[in-house]
Write a structure and sequence with these properties.
Length: 290
């Protein structure tokens, strides 16, 4: 099933999307990746009670919240241009839902100015968005290991509703670390993340590049039990998300308020269209009477 949600263009990143809707040929999604060995399905009742600090509306946030479960891992994979805009929306939605995020940033891509802009687009004060995120950055692989080891104590002092690890293996690829040591360190990180998620009973979100768990040795075997895997792709006119658990598909389209798309009339991607509160825009064409 493919849901299509309209969203203000300025919330989808700096690069404009080239079309206002998802063309029919782009609705075909690739065959889903194989399930990880340790993929575990969280009970439906438990998942229904888990909001991860997200609000009940706009409808994007309940869609994302259904992919989280206490003490379990949700993995987002995709190119930066596709994944980062939705991650920023998640941060802003966390403030809208009065949640609290504990974030480990592994690739130094946290942009407070951009995040404030996204928050204002959802009607949330920029300072409130940032106040509800506790951020720790690492610039070397060994710093990341130390931060993960200390994450449990930090999260107990400041209890979060959602744990987020953004691109944790990034520094391990940049630093000049022997391959066997890199794999051992990442496996240690994976095991520590499992202990963290299960002891705190808080959902854990990890974001990785398109290679997914292959870039994180040990995550499959030693890491937390998996709740869901969501893949991100950017195509003509839309960001496309696909959740592996129930094969739910989502298209985020940039569309000003009041503008309609072809999917509303049975063409292209049939599905529910939920308009976000995008500001009206001036056009160069003058209206004519008569």
């Amino acid at each position: 099933m493919l849901d299509v949600f309209a969203i203000p263009e300025n919330l989808l990143g700096e690069e404009p999307l080239p079309a206002p809707f998802l063309p029919p040929e782009e609705t075909r999604v690739r065959r889903p990746p194989r399930l990880p060995t340790r993929f575990r399905l969280a009970p439906r009742a438990r998942r229904a009670r888990t909001t991860a600090g997200l609000p009940s509306s706009p409808a994007l946030f309940p869609w994302l919240a259904r992919r989280f479960a206490p003490g379990q891992l949700t993995l987002w994979t995709g190119a930066r241009v596709a994944l980062d805009p939705v991650l920023e929306l998640l941060y802003a939605g966390n403030a809208l839902g009065r949640g609290r995020i504990s974030l480990l940033e592994g690739s130094n891509r946290f942009n407070p100015y951009r995040l404030g802009e996204v928050g204002r687009g959802l009607g949330v004060d920029a300072a409130e968005v940032l106040r509800r995120i506790r951020l720790a950055r690492s610039f070397t692989a060994y710093q990341m290991v130390a931060l993960v080891d200390a994450w449990s104590a930090e999260a107990r002092r400041h209890p979060p509703t959602l744990l987020v690890g953004h691109d944790l293996p990034a520094a391990f690829s940049i630093d000049d670390i022997p391959e066997d040591e890199r794999r051992a360190l990442l496996r240690h990180v994976a095991g520590t993340l499992r202990e963290l998620a299960e002891s705190l009973r808080v959902p854990l979100l990890l974001t990785l590049d398109p290679s997914g768990a292959a870039s994180f040795p040990g995550l499959d075997e030693a890491g937390p039990p998996w709740c869901d895997l969501v893949t991100f792709a950017r195509g003509p006119g839309a960001l496309r998300l696909r959740a592996l658990r129930d094969d739910a598909r989502l298209a985020l389209v940039a569309r000003p308020r009041g503008q309609h798309g072809i999917e509303e009339y049975g063409g292209g991607a049939a599905g529910e269209v939920i308009a976000w509160d995008a500001p009206s825009r001036r056009t160069a064409r003058r209206s004519r009477s008569g």
